[in-house]
Amino acid sequence: MKTIETLDISATDVTGQNEVRVNSLDREMTVGELLEALVPRMRLPQHGNGGRPLAYHARLEREGRHLHATEVVGDALQSSDRIMLQPTIEAGGH
Q: What is the pLDDT of residue 52?
């Protein structure tokens, strides 16, 4: 039996207005690597107020949970899954 080496998913921002299809996604990459590729592709802001770099995390809609950056895509996602990219909000600080 042949294992499928890639999968197809969709990704959206928090508003749901910005959605992209991700075809032939490498199952061996980490969720963190996927996010690094998706943020510029989706033209999401990379800096917040005051010029601080924004970090993003992904929420897997099928399971209603946040994915860890170290999770392997092939273990966490299935074809046709949809993830939502959200900026990580850090309270306080300067």
A: 87
